[in-house]
Amino acid sequence: MKNNKSILYIVVIIVGLVVVNAISSSVYQRFDLTKDHRYTLSDASKSLVNDLDSPLIIDVFLEGDFPSEFRLLQTEVKQIVDEFQLASNQIFVNYIDPVKDETTRQQYIEQLTNAGLEPYINTDNSTGKVTQDIIFPWAFASYKDETLKIPLLKRSITQGLQEQINNSVQALEYAFADGFSKLVNAKAKKIAILKGNGQLDDLYIADFLKTVKPYYNLGQFTLDSVATNPQGTLDKLKYYDLIIAAKPSLPFTENEKLVLDQYTMNGGKSLWLTESVAMDKDSLLNDAGTGVSIMRDLQLNDFFFKYGVRVNPTLVKDLYSAPIMLSIGEGSQAQMQPVQWQYSPLAASNPNHSITKNLNLVKFDFASPIDTLKNNIKKSILLQSSPKSKLEGAPTTISLANVTNSPNEESYSLGPQNLAVLLEGEFSSVYDQRVLPFKVKNFKSKSTATKMVVISDGDIIKNEVIRNRPQELGFDQLTGKSFGNKEFLLNSVNYLLDDSGLINIRSKEINVAFLDAEKIKDNKSTWQFINIALPLILLGLFGFAFNYLRKRKYAA
Questions:
Q1: For the packed helices 68-87 and 161-184, what is the interaxial angle rounded to 10 degrees?
Q2: Of 484, 437, 456, 431, nearest to 248 (Cα)?
Q3: CATH of the domain spanning 34-184
């Protein structure tokens, strides 16, 4: 009877194992037990790769033996790529170490650098010996006949490596999802670059246009035809999803303003880079090295006032600002040196908004403060100057000769000044209860839900031009520093036009814990003793005690 029961138990166990194995082979489930859900893709990311009809190939160059910070980034990259692979069986990945083979090392470095993959040179002196590692924190994504680069490291001129790695880990899902979106999604949204009111020439916004072109269809739109056919101009403008006004310098007529107002009332989005004071650094390039700032009236005061903001006709001066290169000295002894330029605030971003989260400093030139006014529109401050700011009225004579003078820091006490504001909601028409400058078909006094970004400086979209060739936006050729201008503008456009929620992935919070490198260095011997010698000592004591007790037991 006992034998029968034993056989029955064995059969039940075997059948149970077979059933469990069959279920586990057909049902697969992963559980993300991390507090911040760092290994859970958003619905927007999943929907992006769910319907791939061709293989999407990812080449990751962050491979090799790295310092601890980059090993963390390396691990997180592999985790997020694994999650994308689980979401789609059309995603394939190659991990490549471009500097592993000494015979092809230099060739790889040159090829990747020429392709725009700037290496990170990591200098390490923690052991007392200075070593340098060449690291490529980049990936390529290829789909059908297109390939694009994906940055894995968010570099910053003001943050240490650990903080840069932390920000990079938080941005990994968005970095990959954003790249996949450009490859997979057909460009459907249309952007109108406004012309006709003295806006910047295309040469000076070329790098920005090149940046947004993979996402959207671009077209120039002139408001000149408003004078002869305002209704027809409005009807054509409605075909665009977003308008961009890049540093207009000529006033807008009432007809033009009504066209823009009704465009907004019909749900159109807009990005305004406008100025209330006319001044730029080119005005200082004369023998005297001086220029005069004057008020610039674009006739848009009532326009923005109705929507809930006011761009004041003053200039923001900030102690936390970008430098300007000046010739210091006389004759042959003169040298070009960077000198702090209070008219170029380095704006801090709002860490709680998806447009500006983990954003590098944004460089302004001759910016004005923006007031927010009380109405039913939701307002989000995107960029501000530092607390060490002051205001300067117009007209004012500005001289390069005064740059080398030490500023009176006590006068820089007005606190942060708003430089970029996001407006969201149902806008009221500027022309509600007013006589219309021309008859509008289906005039609307209230808009559908829409969005608008107002920036008080047109220069943040302006790239430098050298030998008639546009340079990278946000990169200062003289100082070699990169600023967050391009990323901020691209994020703003994506936010204004994004209906899928992809941009909101940037708000994802991931907490990354790092070891204190200084403490490790100072207590290196102690930690080596605790991790190596102490376990051996404890093991030896245990063995000695075990043998002693064993001999004592059996000797008795």
A1: 20
A2: 456
A3: 3.40.30
pLDDT digits (tens, 9 = 90+) for 268-325: 999 999 999 999 888 887 777 788 999 999 999 999 999 999 999 999 999 999 988 7
Instruction: Residue count of the chain, please give it.
Output: 556
Helix H or strand E encompassing 29: none
Residue with tokens 């761009």: 311
**478, β-bridge pairs:** none
Check: CB of residue 181 under 8 Å from CB of residue 146. no
Task: Convert the pLDDT of each residue in 61-86 to its tens digit.
Answer: 988 888 778 888 899 999 999 999 99
Which pair of tokens denotes residue 249? 């310098």
CATH of domain 190-325+335-499: 3.40.50
Domain ranges in the chain with CATH number 3.40.50: 190-325+335-499
CA distance 147 to 416: 42
The pLDDT value given to residue 508: 62
Segment 357-385, tens digit of pLDDT: 888 899 999 999 999 999 999 999 999 99
In the chain, the N- to C-terminal Cα span, in Å, equals 46
* Amino acid symbol at 409: E
What is the C-alpha to C-alpha distance for residues 76 and 170, in angstroms, rounded to an integer? 10
Residue intervals of the chain classified under CATH 3.40.30 are 34-184
DSSP alpha helices (H): ranges in 198-342?
206-212, 230-237, 254-265, 301-307
pLDDT at 165 over 50: yes
Residue 2 has pLDDT above 60, yes or no: no
> Partners of 294 in the beta sheet?
278
Burial of 500: CB neighbours in 10 Å, binned 0-12, 13-18, 19+: middle
Q: What pTM value is reported for the model?
A: 0.78
Q: Report the alpha-carbon distance of residue 280 to residue 550 in Å, rounded.
A: 89
Here the tokens at position 138 are 């980049």
Tell me the three state secondary structure of residue 180.
helix
Phi first, then psi, for residue 464 (nearest 5°) are: -70, 155
- Output b/e per residue, 298-323; b: 16+ Cβ within 10 A: bebeebbebbbbbbbbbbbbbbbbbb
**Given this model, what pLDDT does residue 514 score?**
47
Q: Are 416 and 382 in contact (CB under 8 A)?
A: no
Residue at token pair 């010996």: 129
